[in-house]
């Protein structure tokens, strides 16, 4: 089994890319076309002040109830000098017509904004960054993500859906049949927003007992055997078989809190993960699987190979399209 390889697979996101005045190029799949957003005007996502004006208006006024987080969030970004013009290749399109902006597009924009100053693959987020993305994700329904319970075909396999995948952030969905699991794994240096769309799952998570030390070699063997190069380490229990439901809202994993976790389906369930930065097997963000052992001197996480019972099936994303300008 490949270690978390499914998280690197492109699953046909269905973005519509639109050019400037010189011409427009459409690269929209059939399912994206069905949910495409029409508008006579668009705004430059990279233009000075555009992110603040558009996101404040769209999210605060139309998308998220009680958008009081935005003023403080933007002021903090400005104080840190994070709103100077920058050379971005992407723009969000159609944001001037607030009522037509998909929440999935908005989520994409907020992720882009939160990671624009990431350096050397390292990201530090403020609590307000965590909250604003949680607020947006919490508003998106299973239907808008294209995976209501009716899409479950009942087959005994874990389904994976790639919503969008960028260099600095990604969003994906997993559907787990009752009794199936995502094995104990980590998210080195990463933030993860998880939301159950429907059903129930049981979560066990752990924190490293001591600050993380370099534990990756400069060179790695093939992925299935990389766990043999990692040492066991002590952990503290963060969650012990905690049940998550859709009404519980968004749960956040940080680089230091709950970063080693396992999801096990109590009933058939579907959940979405927003991850930043995503796994990168060429750098230090490789996924490692673990076995948790209770010993006299505490709880230990022992790196293992990918469990052979962890098998996934990739499905096409058929939810609301992410509309961007290029």
Describe what you observe in this structure.
Helices cover 17% and strands 29% of the residues. Strand 3 (158-165) and strand 4 form a beta hairpin. It is globular. The chain has five helices and 15 strands. The two termini are 37 Å apart. It folds into two domains: 7-141 and 318-325, no CATH class; 151-315, Sandwich (Jelly Rolls), CATH 2.60.120.10. The longest helix is centred in the first third of the chain and has 14 residues, at 50-63.
Short description:
With 326 residues, the chain is an alpha+beta fold.
**How many angstroms does the end-to-end distance come to?**
37 Å
The general outline is globular
Enumerate how many helices there are, as a single number. Answer: 5
Helix content: 10-25%
Structural class: alpha+beta
How many β-strand stretches?
Answer: 15
Secondary-structure element series: EHHHEHHEEEEEEEEEEEEE
Mean pLDDT: 72
Strand order of the largest sheet: 9-6-11-4-3-14
Low-confidence stretches: 1-54, 56-99, 213-228
CATH topology heading of the largest domain: Jelly Rolls
CATH superfamily of the largest domain: Jelly Rolls
